[in-house]
Amino acid sequence: MATSGVDYMRERAVAFQALRKRLTARYFVPGMALFLIAIAGSLLAIPESVQIVVFLVGFILMTVGAIKYRCPSCDRTPRDGDGIDFNPKSCGNCGAILRWPNEV
User: Total domain count for the chain?
Assistant: First the structure.
């Protein structure tokens, strides 16, 4: 049985939200934690070379996460003005629904 257009849009929105949660857990949260550790390194008496490595690893994690963060319809990063929209209702590029109304 063929799926209706509404079912297809809902499936895409659910798939995007699953991707968003996965990328947040794997890349964005650890990347931000490493950024904070690198910034607070002087207070924690961490050597400068270690601070630089921690900062670079955090930067790489955030960059990889942003590269993988794509709209399932147009395969482009959802944008909100000048930046990336991390929980968009719809894609700013193609208009695809990325967050179903009853879901977070």
Answer: 1
